[in-house]
Write a structure and sequence with these properties.
This protein is of the alpha+beta class. It contains seven helices and 26 strands. The N terminus is likely disordered.
Length: about 400
């Protein structure tokens, strides 16, 4: 009996020790888990803030242009041949006839006194953009557009066309087969189908650069950055970011649209290396409150900083319907009258009673859009509401109508 009681007591003590140890181990595990979860949540929060800051910032190369680093426009006049009867009518396009005659004379063919009658030729304007620092022998894309009454440039071949700049100097020469994105088909009965613009096309790598534009940017001591959207705050932030990265006061905002950058005296490298360090710096651009309205398509674009004062808006629609129902008036039997058509007009006026919605002042863009959507307005009605808010002085934003 004693042995049994002793064994039971030892089992109870052993079981109690195991339970205490298990409880302590579970407590430590829970504490470690809570600590890990707190650290994980903190890391996620910090990461989200960093991602938000990165998304809000833009590289300098994306919001500003470097002085002297830009494209130059080129233009030329040429002829397109090989069209399947869809070219210019030489009778209605005298410039095409003159160009064709002059080209054939340069090739030794005299057609000045002959009656040319062909629709396989079209006069075109050729345009292209000469990139900055383009090397001689490189190729660029060109755009070809019909100048006369040609119906389509499909299947056409552009003959050698010099492309000149604003100084009337030839910088490139274009030639090649034209690729168009549209088509046109016409039947014998006069019915036709047209998709896209068949009278304009492109030639990929169709121009060969013959003259370079020399600009020694590496030897420059000072250069300006031109902001694409001029703003005082953005210019100041850009200058501060450049000075922090370089370690000196090399940049300063001269006006809302430009930042002057001077190469420091102790900087090891030329201006190209300095710009390489600058162009990838992140800057958070600031933008004014602005609303852009396109009344033709009914598009409304509102910036993030648009704010309104507390205002109540009521919107209703007025619909007037006019319908004509002609009726026949018959004269009496054996009468002297005549049968006549008598028009009968029905005019119906329907007015939709709109509710009164209140938009509180200082709300962000989302609340403003939600308040306007609560009225059930269409984009065109929203244009009228925004213009009325601007007239009432209840909206703090610039409205630009395209």
């Amino acid at each position: 009996m004693r042995a049994k009681r002793c064994g039971a007591t030892e089992d109870w003590r052993h079981s109690g020790t195991v339970n205490v140890r298990a409880t302590a181990r579970a407590t430590r595990t829970a504490a470690h888990t809570m600590t890990f979860m707190k650290n994980l949540l903190a890391a996620v929060a910090v990461t989200a803030m960093m991602v938000g800051q990165v998304e809000a910032a833009s590289r300098i190369k994306d919001i500003a242009d470097f002085e002297g680093v830009r494209e130059n426009q080129l233009i030329g006049y040429g002829l397109v041949v090989g069209l399947q009867g869809t070219g210019d009518s030489l009778r209605n396009a005298p410039f095409t006839r003159q160009s064709l005659t002059a080209m054939l004379e340069r090739l030794g063919v005299t057609t000045r006194d002959l009656n040319l009658n062909t629709r396989n030729v079209a006069a075109v304007m050729v345009t292209a953009n000469l990139p900055a620092f383009s090397n001689q022998g490189a190729r660029i894309d060109v755009t070809v557009s019909a100048l006369g009454d040609a119906k389509s440039l499909a299947g056409g071949q552009l003959l050698v066309t010099p492309l000149v700049g604003a100084d009337q100097q030839v910088y490139a020469v274009a030639q090649g087969a034209i690729a168009i994105g549209g088509f046109s088909a016409e039947g014998a009965s006069g019915s036709s189908v047209t998709r896209g613009v068949p009278t304009a096309g492109r030639i990929a790598s169709g121009a060969l650069i013959e003259r370079e534009l020399h600009f020694d940017i590496a030897a420059q001591r000072e250069l300006r950055l031109a902001l694409r959207n001029p703003d005082f705050t953005t210019a100041r932030r850009m200058a501060e970011a450049i000075n922090t990265a370089i370690g000196s006061t090399a940049a300063r905002a001269t006006n809302p649209g430009s930042v002057a950058v001077i190469r420091p005296q102790g900087f090891e490298g030329d201006m190209v290396e300095l710009l390489t360090r600058i162009e990838n710096l992140a800057v958070s651009p600031d933008q004014p409150a602005k609303i852009v309205i396109d009344e033709t398509s009914g598009v409304v674009v509102m910036g993030e900083n648009v704010r309104v004062s507390t205002v109540a808006i009521a919107q209703g629609a007025l619909t007037i319907s006019v319908s004509e129902q002609p009726q026949v008036s018959q004269p009496a039997p054996f009468g002297q009258g005549q049968t006549a058509v008598v028009p009968q007009t029905d005019v119906t006026v329907e007015e939709e009673r709109g509710g009164l919605a209140m938009i509180r002042g200082g709300v962000p863009l989302k609340d403003l859009v939600d308040g306007l959507n609560a009225l059930g307005v269409s984009p065109r009605d929203m244009i009228s509401i925004l213009q009325a808010l601007k007239t009432a002085g209840a909206i703090q934003a610039e409205i630009e109508v395209m």
